[in-house]
Design goal:
206 residues; alpha+beta; Aminopeptidase; eight-stranded mixed β-sheet; 8 strands; globular; Acyl_CoA_acyltransferase; EC 2.-.-.-; transferase
């Protein structure tokens, strides 16, 4: 299995697959309360069966070329993930997302990992527009969108019902020409990419 270095601190990006359901569940359990502030994943992944089903859904997306999931690891331990929640190659559109458990926050891991995934989507799969949907209350995720060179397209007022409350959702995006124009600075010197054709497998919490 391949691993992509995210820097000199032992952080790596690797595929996540259904056979890793136990490890994925343990990761969600460690960050359940923190991740669940803005992300419904902990409500969906509650036991081994639901963990396997979640990863299987992304394996099927990868097979259909409609989505991807990659785990973020530090010193071999799974601490988060970046995803292409949706990917429409024909239309050239995709939606990226992420999450981290608390121990991994504040190290720039999501930004570094998202750069690799977005670069692969743009350069290898021909995606023209990558979106980032985020609650207006999720300041860390909005900061990631800015660091990725995204532009805020607009706000969907009270569009997201989550745990009994309605939240405003912001839509941020970066277009392929903008990505390429800013890639040298944005990638902070990292030259790694996802392997072409590799079987890479919601709202961001970072």
């Amino acid at each position: 299995m391949y691993a992509i270095s995210l820097g000199d601190d032992g952080a790596e990006l690797r595929p996540l697959e259904p056979w890793q359901a136990g490890e994925f569940l343990a990761h969600i359990d460690r960050g359940r309360e923190f991740i669940g502030q803005h992300n419904g994943l902990p409500d969906a992944v509650t036991d081994l069966a639901s963990s396997r089903a979640f990863l299987q859904a992304y394996a099927e997306k990868a097979a259909a070329d409609t989505g991807r999931i990659h785990g973020i690891r530090t010193d071999g331990t799974l601490v988060g993930a970046v995803i292409l929640r949706t990917m429409d190659v024909a239309q050239g559109n995709a939606e990226a997302g992420c999450w981290l458990e608390p121990s991994a926050v504040g190290k720039g891991l999501v930004t570094r990992a998202a750069r690799v995934l977005i670069d692969w989507a743009v350069e290898e799969r021909g995606i023209h527009r990558v979106e980032w949907w985020v609650s207006s209350t999720n300041a860390p995720s909005i900061a990631v969108a800015r660091r990725l060179g995204m532009t805020r397209d607009g706000v969907l007022r009270a569009s997201y019902l989550y745990r009994g409350r309605r939240h405003d959702e912001e839509i941020w995006s970066v277009l392929a020409p903008e990505w390429r124009a800013g890639k040298g600075a944005a990638r902070s010197g990292s030259g790694d990419r996802l392997p072409d054709g590799a079987p890479v497998h919601g709202v961001c919490t970072s």
